[in-house]
Amino acid sequence: MAESGEGPGTVPEHERILQEIQSTDTACVGPTLRSVYDDQPNAHKKFMEKLDACIRNHDKEIEKMCNFHHQGFVDAITELLKVRTDAEKLKVQVTDTNRRFQDAGKEVIVQTEDIIRCRIQQRNITTVVEKLQLCLPVLEMYSKLKEQMSTKRYYSALKTMEQLENVYFPRVSQYRFCQLMIENLPKLREDIKEISMSDLKDFLESIRKHSDKIGETAMKQAQQQKIFTVTPQKQNNLKFGKTMYINDRIPEERNEIVLKHAFEEEDENEEEVLTVQDLVDFSPVYQCLHIYSVLGDEETFENYYRKQRKKQARLVLQTQSNMHETVDGYRRYFTQIVGFFVVEDHILHVTQGLVTRAYTDELWNMALSKIIAVLRAHSSYCTDPDLVLELKNLIVIFADTLQGYGFPVNRLFDLLFEIRDQYNETLLKKWAGVFRDIFEEDNYSPIPIVSEEEYRAIISKFPFQDPDLEKQPFPKKLPMSQSVPHIYIQVKEFIYASLKFSESLHRSSTEIDDMLRKSTNLLLTRTLSSCLLNLIKKPHIGLTELVQIIINTTHLEQACKYLEDFITNITNISQETVHTTRLYGLSTFKDARHAAEGEIYTKLNQKIDEFVQLADYDWTMSEPDGRASGYLMDLINFLRSIFQVFTHLPGKVAQTACMSACQHLSTSLMQMLLDSELKQISMGAVQQFNLDVIQCELFASSEPVPGFQGDTLQLAFIDLRQLLDLFMVWDWSTYLADYGQPASKYLRVNPNTALTLLEKMKDTSKKNNIFAQFRKNDRDKQKLIETVVKQLRSLVNGMSQHT
């Protein structure tokens, strides 16, 4: 009834819900059940009733099925019980079989395990081999690196490091040994840098020590090359050199010596030529440069190298204080500098960028300024011309060597011109000593010639020509003394010495000719002239020697034109060339001759003074001796003999000397009369003095030197003559009356002189004539003397007022 009471729409709804519950997954049943509660009131109760009814239906169906299959189940159980017995037997058999199988499989298991283990080992070995094949090249390269380090092949070692880092290490970077190797490479690089830098320092120290040997070799090669180039030219000029001077053997001998030396040098030139590479191992520089280039630190290396070389340059340019004393000091200085720059030039040409041309030029300019300053300072201390010449030769070789390596050396050749002036100065000093020795050894007498051989030997050395002398028989004498040919030879030797310095200076023949002429002029005008003047002034040179000196200078003056020809033959520059310098020998020897003439006059006067000092007059004598004084006769005899020697002098010189001697004698005699220490003079003494003056006048009238006109020489004694005549004649009236008249008889008598002498005679009259006041004549004479003295004093006063 209950079921019939339900609405017709409700029952199908509940069935639908039950069908959904049965057919839907449990997880999705929630919404279905929720719909039961969401429907009409009491729908839940109705649904439960419907659900119970459904369950009962299912139970009934299950029971029907169980009843249907119950017999089959019972039969199956029965069959199962029967099978159990067989199963137990089977179990026993299986267990036994399993036991027996296990016992039989144990050995197989052991062998299988061995096989598995071997297979694992084989696989591991294969893996190891593969990994070792990957690692072995790395290890081999690293071993190669170690070997290269031990054999000091550092550049190759750096290349090996690059290969390891770029190619090999990336393949085995996962292994620890690789990491250790990678960590060790920077240290190896630093070691290589330090070792290569140490090698470079050793190299720099080595070339500093051996730079002189390098420079010596380079300079020797440059010198040999120069000699090899110049020798053919000297061979061509040999014949000209031999025939250049017919009467001079010196040039021929010099040319032969020069050529012999040149041929010896040429033979040496055939020896093996050493280069800078043969003397120096540059591998440390190349290696260090390559190493720093590989390491990317090339700039650091360049800066270090240049800095160290600049320091070495300063050390090389330092000099010893006594360098100027020997040529070896200069040679060591030059060879070290050459060695330094030869090395730098080699580095410049075999490397790229380590040194540049600008760097070497800067270094050379710095060094050149220092070199010039050093040479200018040290050469100024050189006093030996041979040392200066050797220095010049060293500078030329030094300049030629460096010029061959491309360094500019014009300033060095300019310096040589300064040193040339100094060389000439040292030559002049040396030749001054040579000239002094020649003058000291000369006997100042004509050269005696006893044979034709002697005559030819002398004229072969000195250009002397005298046809009259050649006609004279032997023995005979040449007018000059031994010093003349010696001086001439030494002047030519000086020209040779001066020429030596001009060689290899790359100058034209015109410039060399000008140098030789200027230096020869200095020798003549300064050195020889000074020596001649000093010789003339020497106390032991007497009148005879002075006469010979004048004769010698005349012949030397004539020989100057032969010296000009001599220079012309050397330089092949004609004397007619516009700018050719002339020799100043004419003025030099003229000046010396004038000085000798003046010295003759001086010494002649000194000799006269010596004789006059021997005068011993008795100024109070009453009567003269009747003959001239002995000292005066000796003086006159001396003058006669001296003037005989003067016959070899030019006439004017002899006449001047004779006139000077007479004038000086006259002055000396006058001073003797007027001497202030002489207080009294008697008339007898005046008469005796007059006898001496007469002898002087006789000597003057005897024409001791030819060439005087009339009584010119006697006029030297005119003052004395008129004064003595005035006193001896006692012609005061005439003197006073005619005083001041051009035609006066006593025109040369000075009132002051007459007054002085008269006062001396006045005092004598007073003392010697004690009783003069008692004699009328004496009293008159005394009054006359007093009157004349007054008049003379008035004349003197008038002269002083007029003055």
From TrEMBL:
Domain Exocyst complex component EXOC6/Sec15 N-terminal: 50-219
InterPro entries: EXOC6/Sec15, EXOC6/Sec15_C, EXOC6/Sec15_C_dom1, EXOC6_Sec15_N, EXOC6PINT-1/Sec15/Tip20_C_dom2
GO terms classed as biological process: Golgi to plasma membrane transport; intracellular protein transport; vesicle tethering involved in exocytosis
Keyword DNA-binding in annotation: no
Start and end residues of each Exocyst complex subunit EXOC6/Sec15 C-terminal domain: 412-760
Purpose of the protein: Component of the exocyst complex involved in the docking of exocytic vesicles with fusion sites on the plasma membrane.
PANTHER family: EXOCYST COMPLEX COMPONENT 6, SEC15
Protein name as catalogued: Exocyst complex component
Organism: Moschus moschiferus (Siberian musk deer)
